[in-house]
TrEMBL record:
GO terms for molecular function: 2 iron, 2 sulfur cluster binding; metal ion binding; monooxygenase activity; oxidoreductase activity, acting on paired donors, with incorporation or reduction of molecular oxygen. Keywords: 2Fe-2S, Disulfide bond, Iron, Iron-sulfur, Metal-binding, Signal. Gene3D superfamilies: Rieske [2Fe-2S] iron-sulphur domain. It holds the Pfam family Rieske. It comes from the Bacteria. This is Cytochrome bc1 complex Rieske iron-sulfur subunit. PROSITE patterns: RIESKE, TAT. Residues 1-28 form the signal peptide. It comes from Nonomuraea dietziae. GO terms for cellular component: membrane. Its cofactor is [2Fe-2S] cluster. CDD domains: Rieske (cd03467). Residues 22-123 form the Rieske domain.
Length: 124
């Protein structure tokens, strides 16, 4: 026989599970967090997880790109002087568009879609 207390507890657990299922797709749709906006310098950027480069070319404007150089697949190593820089052969890419500024790379870095909300940058 189920007591009233057990029924209330089971109902609470079921309700919490339903709430979790309802909230999870919204979080998943938003994509994983890359960074907080305050950690990305204006006129610069950061390399994140060795997979992404997030830049802030002008205050409040954020861009994201693949961190894989299009020349020979090296991971870019720094963001400075308005460019994303590959250490392998010297390729440089624009922090605004990902376009090649200095070769030998011939193709731009792949752009990644992001969403910025409440000081958080997420993949879209």
């Amino acid at each position: 026989m189920i007591t009233r207390r057990a029924l209330i507890i089971r109902g609470g657990v079921t309700g919490a599970g339903a709430l979790f299922l309802w909230a999870s797709p919204a979080e998943a749709a938003a994509g994983p967090v890359l960074s907080k906006t305050r950690t990305i310098p204006v006129g610069g950027g950061k390399i994140l997880r060795g997979k992404y480069v997030v830049t802030q070319p002008t205050k409040g404007t954020f861009r994201a790109f693949s961190a894989v150089c299009t020349h020979q697949g090296c991971t870019v190593a720094s963001v400075s002087g308005g460019t994303i820089n590959c250490p392998c052969h010297g390729s440089k890419f624009s922090i605004t568009t990902g376009a090649v500024v200095n070769g030998p790379a011939k193709r731009a870095l792949a752009r990644r879609r992001i969403r910025v909300s409440k000081g958080v940058i997420r993949l879209a």
